Amino acid sequence: MTTRAGFVALIGEPNAGKSTLTNRMVGAKVSIVTHKVQTTRTRIRGVAIEGESQIVFVDTPGLFRPRRRLDRAMVAAAWGGAADADVVVLLIEAHRGVTAGVQRILEGLADVGQGRKVVLAINKIDRVKAEALLALSADMNERFTFAETFMISAEKGHGVNDLRAWLAAEMPEGPWLYPEDQIADIPLYMIAAEITREKLTLRLHQELPYQLTVETENWEERGDGSARIDQMIYVARDGHKGIVLGKKGETIKAVSQAARAEIEEFLGRKVHLFLQVKVRPGWLDEAERYSEMGLDFKDGKG
Question: What is the average pLDDT across 90-102?
Fold first, then answer.
């Protein structure tokens, strides 16, 4: 029996559907999914099994024009993930076509894509007609030499099995990299923090765009099989603290309940979740915060 194992990097613009596709491929929620751009900060890896192949998905931050240190570190992490992968999957949205951002990614792939197969996955195909899809596919394949093109809907699952089967066959021969029952290679405390950050992002919408981060400060296993999890929400300004807490603490209470329910579902056991908010004006320039998010602080320098 020949086993295969390798890395697949998913790249694309923010909101192209990379996190949704990772979760669909793996069959579990390992990467947070929101309707806000730039929610994925770290290279979260989901591990999928297809036949005798183990596919490790590197879910990179969306590629965009960086403005701040955090932005630059996220973009560096995305290209780093692509450069380290066996296969790169460029995900674009069918209804948006070849945007300026997609064109910039294609230019970047001219360097990173050397020596490895790059696949085009056109996502959200249910939003456009077949003729438009074919025209977009032809246009993209004129701009770059893709190994294959797949039409998919990450949300509904259309075409995802074909993409996964193709990727499985492309993985290098070799032993599996992770135990069979492992679905992600980031620690549980980081997954728990990501879940809470997702709930905050969904709840706060435009009020606090990326000025907060969540860290799990304590994880205590209890004798009854439950876990006590203490998390700190760092915000950049005093005014942000009030927004996170909400009127009479309503916002943080709702976030805590939603996050606890999802963490419990993920772990399959009872969780006691305690959230605190701390104002830390310079957290966007602290090396320690970057390493907590799996980013390289040095990559963020201008």
Answer: 91
Cβ proximity of 172 and 6 under 8 Å: yes
State the pLDDT confidence band at 57, using cuts at 50, 70 and 90. confident
C-alpha triplet 228, 267, 193: angle, nearest 5°: 60
pTM above threshold 0.85: no
Number of Cβ within 10 Å of residue 23's Cβ equals 21
For 138, the domain range is 4-170
Q: Are residues 12 and 143 in the same domain?
A: yes
115: region left, alpha or beta (phi > 0 left; psi from -120 to 50 alpha):
left
pLDDT at 34 over 50: no
Q: Above pLDDT 70, what percent of the chain? A: 75
The predicted pLDDT at position 100 comes to 87
Amino acid at 17: G
Cα–Cα distance measured from residue 155 to residue 17, given in angstroms and rounded to the nearest whole number: 8
Helical residues (DSSP H) of 14-66, grouped into ranges:
18-26
* Number of separate domains in the chain: 2
Residues found in the chain: 302
To the nearest whole number, what is the mean pLDDT of the chain?
A: 81
> Which H or E run includes 133?
helix 130-143
DSSP 118: E
The kind and range of the H/E element at 203 are: helix 188-204
Last residue of a domain, one of 140, 170, 200: 170
